[in-house]
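Batch manifest, entry 17 of 40.
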Amino acid sequence: MHKNRLQASRVKDIRVRIFHINDKLTKLNHGYSK
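Output type: structure tokens
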């Protein structure tokens, strides 16, 4: 059970990281298109 919780938190961390990377890329793209 403890192992599953650790796995879940790791997946959540990766998703958050991906979200932030996508956000940065989106802002960069908007900056270039102006």
